[in-house]
Amino acid sequence: MFGEANIERSGSRCVGWGKQDREHDMPTIRTVASSKGASLATEAWGELEKGTILLVMGATASMLWWPDELMKALADCGYQVIRFDHRDTGQSATLLPGEINYDLADMSGDLIAILDAYEVGSAHIVGMSLGGLLGQIVALQHPERVKSLTLIASEPVNLAYEGEGIGPEFMAHFKAMAALDWSNRKAVSDFLLRSAELSAGSAVPFDAEGARQRVEAGLGRTDSMASAFNHGRIGGNLDGLDLAKLTQPVLVIHGSEDPIIPIGAGYKIAETAPDADLMVLDRRGHEILERDVPAIAAAILALADGA
Which of 104, 181, 265, 280 has the most Cβ atoms closer than 10 angstroms to its Cβ? Predict the structure, then answer.
C-alpha cells in the first residue's frame, strides 16, 4: 500500500523558505575516480550532522539542474548534500559524441565510487529520471549503502507502466537533433531551451529566462555538449532486479503532466515498492519548479529523518 500526498500539504519545521538558519561555506569541490578511467566532478554542501543525501540527476543533465535552493534547504537541516556531473556532462570525463564505453552498471557504480570517496557508508539517495533508475539499481544491489530512496520523475526498474513512452512532440524535437550544428552555440542553446519548454507542465508559465540561464551555465561547463547525448545509447543487464524487494523506505515524486516519463510510472513504483509514499505534483512536467522546492525539500527531509 502507499499513501498519496499533495504538494501543497507538505511542510517541515526545519525548512524555512526565504530565510536560512545557518551560514553556508563555499561548497566542497572534489574529483572522484570511477571505473574505466572516468573522473567525476562532485560538489558537497553542508555538514555531516544527520548524514548524507546524494542527488543523482537525469540523462544529459549536469549537476546544475539541481536547484541551489534545494541544496541549501537540505543542508540547512543538518545533512551533507552531494551533487555531481554524470559522465559526459559538465566537468566530468567526456568521450567523443557517439563513442561510449560505459553502461548502467558503470553509472550506478559511480554512486558507490562517490560515497566511497567521501567515506560515506550509507546515504539517502535522491534521483531524478535516469538518476532514479540508478538509485533503484544501487538500492537493490547494495542495500547496505542506501538508507532511503526518493524517486523524482523516474521509471520503475524492469516494470511496464501505463502510458509508457515519450510523447510525439518531444520525439519530433529529438529527431531534429540530427541536423543540429553543435559548433553553433546559439543553435545548441535554442535546442536545449526548447527541450526544457517541452518538458514543462501547465501549472505556471514557462520560465524561459531561468531555463536559458541554466542552459548557458551548462554550456559554459563542458567542451562537448553533444557528448551528453551519449546517454541515449546506454544499455545494461537489469535481469533479476525486482522493485518489490526494496528494503528501504521510498518517496515517489511525479508530475501529473510529465511528457517524458508519464505519471503511470510513479503509480507503478508506489504500488510495487513495499514501503512507498507518492507525492503527485499537479500539472507539473518533467521538471523541478523553484516554487516547489520548499515542499519537495520538506518531503525528502521527512523521509530521511524518519529512516
Answer: 265
